[in-house]
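Please study the protein below:
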Amino acid sequence: MEDLKKNDLIDLEITDISNDGNGVGHYNGIAVFVPAVAVGDVIECRIVKVRSSFCYGRTEKLKHPSQDRVESDCPVSKHCGGCSFRHISYEAECRAKDKFIRDSFDRIGKLSPEYMEFCGCKDTDLYRNKAQYPVADDNGKAVCGFYAKRSHRVVEYTRCRLQPVIFSEIVEFIMGYVNDRHIPAYNEISLTGLLRHIYLRRGAYSGEIMVCLVVTDLKKASVFDKLAILLKEKFSDIRTVVLNENPKNTNVILGSRMKAIVGDGTINDTMCGNNISISPLSFYQVNTHQAELLYKKAGEFAQLSHDSTLLDLYCGTGTIGLSMARQVKKLIGVEVIQAAIDNAKANAKANDITNTEFICGDAGKIAQVLYERGERPDVIIADPARKGCDRASLEYMAKMSPDRIVMISCNHTTAARDCAILAELGYTCDKVMGFDLFPRTSHVETVVLLSRK
């Protein structure tokens, strides 16, 4: 068998799509990953990188297009790292995401759940309630947009089809102010400059907008005081303008220090009929309407009663638990970010929900505390970050012996891994359902029902 070498040209049929959105073909038994292709494409592929057991390639010529292929409706989709699927139909995207989930639970988890019908999204554009725009220095000029694929090079573009149109207008107004006043943008190489990110949030129901400017030094950020006033005058939906300080050389966008210069640093919205207060550090699903469908299904899986105790791990601002609080005797929420716990408590109070306890701390450590104080929830809901749950959290979840565990995850691979561990600890993975909260990207949400054996 002839080994592939860099710059080789080969004919390649694309037979699958990987979790990160790359197409997959095979040549003499070697997997070749190619971006921006569709299942069914036949391409002339140039090999650009060779690894021991696979290769990366790029399309030199599209010889036979797939029936799934469509023209991209975004001028920067080939360069921007946001969307992975603008070149295929949305129906094909949903099929691919459903397969991602099934493959993870079959292959990684070695589980055999019932796979429920995938829930696609009604709105594939303008659905996001949150956007984070990196700002960079380009020869003395501040530019703003989105990171290119697998890099921190900023693709200068503000009119993303996933964001509300008003976000583009706000960002362009801010960048005009910044460049008119020669406010220095952050330079990742020299670690100099002031403005790092523009971070926007908008209530899907309320329309209230939060503007958060991430800066390297709050002491130098008074240059934005006038901007905050101008923003509020021009955009009536802006409720608050916040400064966030992040002086560290890190990929993490937000730091821990905040200063509100207009409003109180929060916006309000509605989720599952509850009034919700949101701060910059609070986790809040980026697709409100689709998240409501997801939470409704999670509630159906939970099978709650008025005698139930519900434990909501990784609860964020409390949106999931509070959507079910009126169905249970007691709700306990656990979250590691204090600002989110403060929001959760305020959200419970604002909605006259009194059967709650919200605790700030690491999920695994608090799960142990709850176990040792004798808490035995009937149902546990866990919605961890992409890295999933740690072993301690899973073990104490199982020790508390709930009848059901409902897991919500934005990473099906770690969800499958964690469900496999819970299977070892005495739980059966009964049902799995995919929800597309992130159309045109490679991300997908999963909800899982596990029951005690």
